[in-house]
Amino acid sequence: MEMDIRPLRTEADYDWALSQIEPYFMDPPLPGTPAAERFDVLAALIESYEAHHWPIEAPDPVVAIRARMELSGYSQADLARLLGSRSRASEILARRRGLTMEQAYRLHREWHIPAEALLQPIRATDAATPA
Asked: What are the residue boundaries of the structural domains of the chain, listed by start?
């Protein structure tokens, strides 16, 4: 089976690739088959095109911390225990203080927050984030 794959250079190429991969979601190919290989190549092309044209930046550290707290049911008291004090947790969540490397490491290790989000400077204000 010849693999009819081409580079994705335009939005039309991207739309074509999406139309080609869609049937595989309804009827997944068996691993190791030419159809499975075609699926893998199409998925890689689509992922690369999306990453290049619509990159997703890591969230601000406070946004990442708040998201983890919400998803995992952590409280501000849990954050205070991890960071060493209630006042430190409050200052970070209020954007009055940045994270130290040690705090970022603990949040990454204990709460599994991606390091690339924690190592960014905390923005002074962020309209998308409630205070």
From this structure: 11-53, 61-118
Average pLDDT over residues 26-41: 94
> In 6-30, which positions are buried (b, 16+ CB within 10 angstroms) versus exposed (e)?
eebeeeeebeebeebbeebeeeeee
Could you identify the residue written with the tokens 């970022």?
104
Query: Which of 62, 131, 72 has the alpha carbon at shortest distance from 103?
Result: 62
Long-range contacts from 109-112, C-beta under 8 angstroms, 24+ separation: 110/82, 111/65, 111/68, 111/72, 111/74, 111/82, 112/68
Q: What is the pLDDT of residue 2?
A: 56
Contact 11, 52 (CB under 8 A): no
- The model's pLDDT over 52-62, given as tens digits with 9 standing for 90+, comes to 999 888 789 99
How many residues belong to the chain?
131
The total of other beta-carbon atoms located within 10 Å of residue 3's CB is 11
Tokens 């693999």 identify what position? Answer: 3
The CATH code belonging to domain 61-118 is 1.10.260.40
